[in-house]
Amino acid sequence: MIQDKKVLFSGMQATGNLTLGNYLGALKNWVTLSDEYECFYSVVDMHSITVRQDPATLRKRARALLILYIAAGLDPEKNCIYYQSHVSGHAELAWILNCFTYMGELNRMTQFKDKAARHADNINAGLFTYPVLMAADILLYQADVVPVGVDQKQHLEITRDIAERFNNLYGPVFTIPEPYIGKVGAKIMSLQDPEKKMSKSDENPNASIYLMDDPDTIMRKCKRAVTDSESAVLYRDEQPGVKNLINIYSACTGHTPEEVVKEFDGKGYGDFKMAVGESVISVLRPLQEEAARLERDKAYIDGVIRANAEKAGYYANKTLRKVQKKVGFPERVR
Ligand code: TRP
């Protein structure tokens, strides 16, 4: 669409504090992918309000997330980094796609069932049609690939179904997106319950390392991480806590798990946890410093926000106009 490069779309919500898992599992890979693809990375604030938010907090977090994308190494000149709510095409396409999505399909979404159970007092229509907005995000930019975690795979499948349904009716309008399941996308688990994913919504603050944690906090959380009584740094499923720490260390240092096992042969968990803590600190400190620096450069960030919203809007409108025409909306007279 844009050049000879394939198009990639992904987004993150600015709800909760991002964790090391979000960084190592997603954001870090986005940076790697940004050379190969024409990338759109959105801060999906419209998805966030499917759950009640404090407005000031949402606004603050959305900006912090956008800054974090850049601090992590995404060049905003090459990657389109923008707020979903700044491009009205998302809402407009979502409406149209709502009319091509069945209640039955949405009823099968496991995330809806989970969230409806967790927010029983606010099962709003937006929560139900959340996957349709996500489909609009992706299809608006004719994305070829979408890097997502396993928890979002079902949403990508419904996106493909909606796109195929539309194309079957009206001709080839949408590119059918493929999921991009990263080769290296380290899945980081909770430090307190290594059978669970590290989550920004965990109630136990020791379970997750937050991207903005200071060095002492990071070290303390690593030292308190749940391990086992084997007293050997081995990479195996029987030692999920240790395995997770190896994955973290491996992702932070670039050493393979096998190398890590060799490095800590004969050493105790105390030494190992300390090294893990240090490796995390050495990754997060520059990220935090860069985020703080960008935070202070208000004019620069505002410029990025403006320019990229415009760029996103341009591509979004191209698709939107085509779709509007296909479904029979009257043409705009200039
Ligand atoms: N629903 C995704 C999540 O919570 C975020 C998201 C919204 C997204 N739109 C997207 C991810 C489009 C990939 C592509 O993780």
Automatic annotation (TrEMBL):
InterPro entries: aa-tRNA-synth_Ic, Rossmann-like_a/b/a_fold, Trp-tRNA-ligase, Trp-tRNA-ligase_bac-type, Trp-tRNA_synthetase. SUPFAM superfamilies: Nucleotidylyl transferase. A motif ('HIGH' region) lies at residues 14-22. Keywords: Aminoacyl-tRNA synthetase, ATP-binding, Cytoplasm, Ligase, Nucleotide-binding, Protein biosynthesis. The keyword DNA repair does not apply. L-tryptophan binds at D137. GO terms for molecular function: ATP binding; tryptophan-tRNA ligase activity. Its main location: cytoplasm. Catalyzes the attachment of tryptophan to tRNA(Trp). PANTHER family: TRYPTOPHAN--TRNA LIGASE, MITOCHONDRIAL. This is Tryptophan--tRNA ligase. The lineage of its organism: Bacteria, Bacillati, Bacillota, Clostridia, Eubacteriales. The gene is trpS.
